[in-house]
Amino acid sequence: MKKVLIIGGGASGLMAAVSAARAGAVVTVLEHNKQVGKKLLITGNGRCNLTNVNQDDRNYRGGVPGFAKQVLDSFGMHDTLRLFTELGIFTKNRNGYLYPYSDQASAVVEALRMEAEHRKVKLALNTQIKGISCKDSGFEVQTEGWVYRGDALILAAGSCAAPQTGSDGSGYIYAKKLGHCIIKPLPALVQLRSRDKRMEKLAGLRMDAKVILQRDGEIVEREEGEVQFTAYGLSGIPIFQVSRYASRALEDGKKVEIELDLMPVFEEEPFAAFLNTRIALGAYKTIEQLLIGLFPKKMAECLRDTAKLSKGKTAEELTEEERQALIFECKHFRVQISSYNGFEQAQACCGGVDTAQVNPGTMESQLVKGLYFAGEILDIDGTCGGYNLQWAWSSGYLAGLHAAREGMTH
Ligand SMILES: Cc1cc2nc3c(=O)[nH]c(=O)nc-3n(C[C@H](O)[C@H](O)[C@H](O)COP(=O)(O)OP(=O)(O)OC[C@H]3O[C@@H](n4cnc5c(N)ncnc54)[C@H](O)[C@@H]3O)c2cc1C
């Protein structure tokens, strides 16, 4: 029987433990928290959006194109649901986003923990790792007071995102010591910051918008949804979705801009016609009055100022150029991004163990026989909607299965 050691008792580590134990291995999970699944408990606002029925390659981002797809092709959403159903999790579907029916993330943690314990997985909690070594005879993990030995080692220690949950980036250090390249981890699914003074005035607004992220003037990604304006910048799901490109571009010294289309229900020309009709009908109105019913007052004033139209000016006083400027600002409201919130606020991490050095069929290292990776420690990050957990389940399942079957032979 293979002995499998797993570092990290989070989503991917627990899944790896279940799959390795089901494949007949003797499994030990080393977790430095006093409980397993601490981050899992806060996912989906405590409800755990565990996967999504809509799966598209675009939901998984990373340095090696197609890497995540190969993993998901081996163990995807349907396999995950089958397994969770076996473990007792019945799901609830909200527009494709799947949650445990009880709406409790703790149900997912409990289901995995119960199965792991039933399969005699040893959950070594409160375990502080002092060192890891790879020998001909297998892996040794030195902890305070004990040395664990295994034929295979799975690094499932998570990323740097939400370090308060235990994923403090230490997994990268072990991966690096074992010879792996680490792509600099940066916050993903995070709020973006701006020095733009208009943000303070707009703070508190929520508006539906199309979001276009530009890097040095080139369009990198588009999203649509409810944008939240905050005193420090921009937040909301569509901002989270594009944030990983923003953090990477800023890290590379590029200029990053978010362009908001604040009237996404109209194409460019119909919107111009629509606003011109409004101007004709309400020629006596000031610009803010003209925009009542389209935008919140704070935004109407901001659009007026951004289009450089003086306060008190009426619709009939607008020159053709000024009309064009107003129409333009409604459709192309630009905010320069100066930075992003830290790992404490991030829901995921981009970067991590370079997947070019990992076999997507097995999750085994291409450098160290018997070493496997699972979850967010790898350079894969999902979009909002259950894709990060799907990645943890898929990669965890494969890593556990192959570690149990192949491991290190000696
Ligand atoms: C607030 C929030 C909400 C989220 N909501 C969702 C959601 O609804 N849907 C979704 O798909 N994704 C969500 N995510 C992302 C998702 O939680 C993660 O992608 C996922 O948990 C990653 O799994 P993992 O196993 O790689 O890492 P983790 O779940 O972070 O587990 C890593 C484990 O390793 C342990 N560990 C780390 N270093 C060591 C060490 N040196 N020694 C021993 N143990 C160690 C940690 O304590 C931790 O328990 C959310 C994230 C956050 C922060």
**How far apart are the termini?**
13 Å
Number of strands: 22
- In the sheet with the most strands, the strands line up as 18-17-14-15-16-13-19
The number of distinct helices, counting runs of at least 4 residues, comes to: 13
The biggest beta sheet reads: 7 strands, antiparallel
**Which runs of at least 5 residues are low in confidence (pLDDT < 50)?**
none
Helix content class: 25-40%
Tell me which ligands are bound: flavin-adenine dinucleotide
Count of the separate structural domains: 2
Dominant shape: elongated
Mean pLDDT: 96
Beta-strand residue fraction: 25-35%
CATH topology of the largest domain, which one? FAD/NAD(P)-binding domain
CATH class of the largest domain: Alpha Beta
Structural class, from secondary structure content? alpha+beta
Radius of gyration, in Å, reads 25 Å
The CATH homologous superfamily of the largest domain is named FAD/NAD(P)-binding domain
CATH architectural arrangement of the largest domain: 3-Layer(bba) Sandwich
Task: Write up what this structure looks like.
- This protein is of the alpha+beta class and 410 residues long.
- The protein has two domains: 3-187 and 349-405, FAD/NAD(P)-binding domain (3-Layer(bba) Sandwich); 191-341, no CATH class.
- Helix content is 33%, strand content 26%.
- The chain is elongated and about 85 Å long.
- The chain starts with a strand and ends in a 5-residue tail after the last helix.
- Bound molecules: flavin-adenine dinucleotide.
- The site of flavin-adenine dinucleotide (FAD) has 41 residues, from helix 1, helix 2, helix 6 and helix 13.
